[in-house]
Amino acid sequence: MENNNMKQVLSSFQSDLNRIQTLAGTLSQVEKKHFENLTGNENEELRDMAVAEQNGARQLGEIRQLCLAMAQKIEEIQNSMVAR
Amino acid sequence: MSILANFLRKLGSEVSGDAVRTVARDQYTENLFEMVPAAKKVNPINLAEIAMRAAHGTPIPRPLGSHIHFSPWEKLLFNPVHLYRFPTPDNVGIDTSVVIGPRAGKPLHLSIPLIIAGMSFGGAMSKNAKIALARAASMAGTATNTGEAGLLEEEREEAQLLIGQYNRGGWLNTPDKYNRLNAIEIQLGQGAQGPTPQRTTTGNIGEEYREAFELEPGQDAKIHSRLEGVNTREDFIALVQRLRQETGVPVGLKIAAGHYLEHELQAALEAGCDFIAIDGAEGGTHGGAPTLEDDVGLPTIYAVNRAARFLAEKGAAVEISLIATGGLVTPGQMLKAMALGADAVYIGTAAVMAMVGDQMAKTMPFEPPTDMVVYTGKMTDHLDVERSVHNLFNFLNSCVMEMELVAVTTGKVSLRDINRDDLVCLDPYLARALDIQLGFVGPEEQAAFYGTGKWMPQESPSHQEEPRIH
Prior knowledge:
Helix content of chain B: 25-40%
Shape of chain B: globular
Oligomer: heterodimer
Mean pLDDT of chain A: 87
Strand order of the largest sheet of chain B: 4-13-12-11-10-7-6-5
Radius of gyration of chain B: 25 Å
Radius of gyration of chain A: 19 Å
């Protein structure tokens, strides 16, 4: 792949990752809100749903962190390509 | 009805009155009350184990490890902040994720820092218990560990992330098996039993066990004291390098903590291990000799502290992940181990207890609850897998949420950020050993309290940190 093409692909990956991490962050907040709404309920089924939502929020938070780390790595690669 | 009640009451009164009179009048040598000081002298556990040794004539396999609380976790407390630093705002999510083996080709990404410890199928756990452990771990975004076993297909299917033990039985040590793992843990020992040999006799080996371990009919399952082919430090280094190169997954070492810990960690460093699992003296097991459990090893709190400081001194704390294990049963203990430098913790006993949870009633009062989860248990069919998954998943979630609350109260946004500075110690010797400030006196008075010129300022610059008000 040509250098210019590679730069474009990397740039597109970085943009997509930023989009995914934003979505994951937003969804994580939504899940957290659901957890808060569902807790304090005596109904076992709703309580289980609350725990699942909390777990979902946590895993989305992890996806967000992964995307951030990957986007940062891509930036490092881009910078090293410019330096060359 | 009232006549019967009155009769029973009168009978009870007569019997207890007679018992009290007998205890008061009889000589000690004829008195049943002798059992009380006798049991207090040797303690009820030792008393029962003396009788078991006398009956069997061989070492007695005690489940779940030592009952002695070697690690004084209760002497450490987290520091809440209000103005020194501000608590974490409500709307900020606490990052609970952790990466095991960050420099490996395929690092292990976990959503939470709690991992299910190595509890082998067959040697320890039933198939249903292993399935439940794996499924709950996957739901929570974490890994489970095979223990010293062969590859159980059902466990592999259920576990999104499976850490496999390259073990002293040799059952997972071929490429067709270890290439299917997400991380490899070379198991040279465990907290409860050190590197001692173990054997499951053929009478306790069922068909599925034999199949997973690839044993011949009539063949015992033996765990040796040494890993086959590893008789020198160089052999170990070569093994780690080969596995890292062949698989690309994190390759780690698991050992029982002992006083030569730093020497053993040096070998792991030279070998290029991606992670190290340190099993303290409180480590659990399906059944180990009480002497190995109670009288051998180094308690988890000191082991984690020493391992973390060693890695930091060698500049390897970021590259090499440290997993603490051994007797960590509460979220507070788990988080304290992390504050001392562990990246994650393995939980075994607590996970099993959580899994059994409200199903305990099925075995009581005639069998212990673990009878439903151990491979040789008589009541393994009574374990409700779905309920076990539900219970363990809830337990993991509950533990991590409690840890998140500590992060908020200490003003941190990630569990990884919680460190020794967030702790205070209630024992002067322990405080010095762990490099944690003593709670008896203020930060400025530490040196005066100890009668020394200074309080280790070179290792703990943050101790002199100015209050930060955001």
